[in-house]
Amino acid sequence: MMQNPVLTRLVKQRNTLLNRLVKLNSTLRNGHDDLAEVLRTRFCDSLVDYLSEGHLRAFQSLPKDVRQHDLAAIDATTRAAMGFNTRFGGEQYPMGMAAALETLVLVLETRFELEDKLLAVTATVAA
Length: 127
Prior knowledge:
Elements (H helix, E strand, L loop, with lengths): L4 H25 L3 H26 L5 H25 L8 H30 L1
């Protein structure tokens, strides 16, 4: 079980993000525009919280030699995810969100794999 509260919070935020992603995607596919508007805002808020938790807290607590290589790859996923947030996180609802969400899912999948690797290293270092 994870003892580090920062890493525990990161995993919790990841789960919230995934939950909101699934709900938003389902709502978009079913054409419920009013609900999608509400869920879009919640999802983008969760996305920014999740990205911030990783960069500003969780990854900074890792040993420098561990995080050096993987942080460059994680930075690329952060830029892509923040691009989604910039485009869809504002007050206006631009077209093309369903397609952009599919692309974001691939970005997040890569990020989760990198994070899991870092979390595993952190667990090993802490043990």
